[in-house]
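Researcher: I'd like a structural prediction for the single chain below. Treat it as a standalone chain; there are no partners to consider.
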Amino acid sequence: MYKKWAAALTAIVIATMISAAELDNTDAADSFSDVHEDYWASGPIQRMKDQGILNGNKDGTYAPNQDISRGQAASLLVAACDLPMEENPESTFNDLTDDSFSTPFAEAVREAGLMVGRNEGTEFEAAQKLSREQMATILVRAFDLEPVENSERDVTDLHSAHETHKQNVKILAQYGITSTKEGNFRPLEPVTRAQFAVFLERALSIDFTKGQGIESLRAADATSFEVTFTRDLSEEETEAQKFSFDPELDVVDSDLLSTKEDQSIVRVTTDEQIEGEAYRLYYEGTRTSLTLDAETLDGDPLIDELEVMDTFSRSLKEIGIQLNQDLSNKKEAGMVDEYQVSDKNGHQIAVEDVRVDGASIWITLEEKQDKGTEASVVLSENILGKEELFDVQFSDDTSPEARDAEVVGLRTAKVIFSEPIDPNESQLKKAFSLEKAKGSDVEIEKASLQNGGREAVLSYASDISDGRYELHISEDIVDYAGNGLKKSDPFIIDVIAEKDPPVITGHRNADSEHVTLVFNEEVVFDEDASEEKILRSFYHTNPSNSATDIDIDGSEIQLHFEEASTLPGGDVYVYVEGGIVSDLWDNVQEDKLRYTIEEINE
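Model: Treating it as a single chain, here is the predicted structure.
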C-alpha cells in the first residue's frame, strides 16, 4: 500500500466514520481567487493546498467546478500517497511519449497499481475525464479499504455502475467517504476538481486514523474526551500537545487511563465544550476521521428535543415534514396510522403511504389536492412525544424529473421519478423508448405506475438480453399539477441478468394487523397459484395464522391479519413458503423464508 502516512495500517474498524455532510470551511480565498470562504469545499481544498497535495492554475485560480482529468488525478495521487516517481521515465503507454508532462505521474500510479491504464493497459488517456466510479476504485486501491461488515450504508443507484466498480463504490459508502441525502452516487458522472479534493481528504483522514490505531472518541464529561487506541502507546505519544480539536478547544492535560495488550485509553482534558458543537479530533496536527458532538457530564449525548422544523407540499399528492433529528430507527414514524390529514373543513384526507428518509418524512395521499388547498397534519404522540398539529398549503410549480432507471427483469424496466406522475394525463406507453446499442428498439407492451405514482413499470414484448441500452423518455409525462417532465439525457443501462432468487431484507409498518415485507428486488407471485394458496403461503408463528389479505407493490408485500390471527406483541417470526415468490428474472425462491420482526406494536 502507498500512502503519505508512515504508520503501518492495523486491522481495525473505525467506529466513527466521516460524515459526508460535515465540511469545516477553512477559508481557501487566501490561496485561490475562485474558491471563496462560503464555497462548500473551501476547507478541504485549503487543507490539501497547505499539505502540498494540490496546486492551482498560474492565474491563481483552482477551477473547482471543472471536471478533473485522469492526468490531474494521477498528479494528486502521487503527492497524497507519497509515491516514488522517476523524473524522466520511459512511457509504457502508447498515447504518452517519454517527454509528455503526464508521463512521470502516469508511470508512478501504474507502478503502484492505482491506475493501470485503459484498453488493456496500452493507453493512459491523461486528458480523459475521470468518472466517479473510476475514482472509487482508485481510492479503494490507494488506501487498501476493505468492506465494512454489517454496514447499513447503501447506494441506491449502484446498479448503474459497471460491474468492475460496484464493490468499490459500496466500500466508499460504507466508510462514509461518499454519502448523499438520497443515497445516489451517480457512478458514471465525471468528478470535479472540488469533489476529488473532498473525496481524497476523507480517504486520507480515514487512512491516517487507522494507521495510528485510533479506534474511538467519546466525551467523558463536559471538559474531557477519551481517545481509544488499538495499540500500546509510549509516554511521549500521550502528551497533551499531541491532541487538538476543530473548532478549537484549549487542551489542558492528558492522562493514560489504561493500557493493555492492543489497547490504550487516553483522557484529554479541555476547556468546556459547547453544547451541540461537533468537534473534530486532530492527532499530531493531522486531521482524523473522528468527530463527536458535545455531551453532558454523565456521558449521554446532549440531544435537542425532537422538533418539526418545517411542513410543506412536495407535490399535490405529497406532504413533506422536516425534523431536527434522524427518525430512521423510529418505526412509528413510518406507520400510516400515526398521521391524520384533514382539510380546513375538518374532512379527512386519506393517507396512502408514509416513508422516512433520515430527518425527512414523506406522506403520500390517496388523492391529489387542488393548488391552494389548505390542510392540517397531526403527528401522534408516538412520534413527537405529544400530539401536534401543523398546517400546510398545497402548491407545485416544479417540473418532475426522471431520477433513475434500471432493467429489473427479463421483460421489465423501471423508472423512478422525483414525484408522483398523473396516469390520466400522461402518455405512459408512448413516453418510453428502450434502444440497444447498435441495435433496434425493444417493443414496449405496457406501462403502469406503482409506489404512489413515483415509479413507472415498463413491460416489454420480448426478453431484454444482456448488454448496454439507452432508455429515452419523452416529455409526454406530467405530474398532478400539469407540469411537464424536465428534459434529460437518456439513461445508460448495462443489463446483466440476475441469477439469485429474491430474499427479504427488511420490513416496515408493523403492528398487530399489518406488516410490509421488503425484498431486495421486484417480486411477483406464482402465476399458477390460486389466491387461497398465496394467502396460506404467508403466515406468522405457525401455518394456522395465515394472512387474510395481501398486496404487492414492486419489492414490497403488505400482509393483513384479521382478529383471529393477529400478530402478537414482542418478537415474532413471519414465514413465506417456498415456490410462491419469484423475481422478474424468473428466479423462484424455492426455500421457505423465515423473517424476524422485533417488538410488534400491539
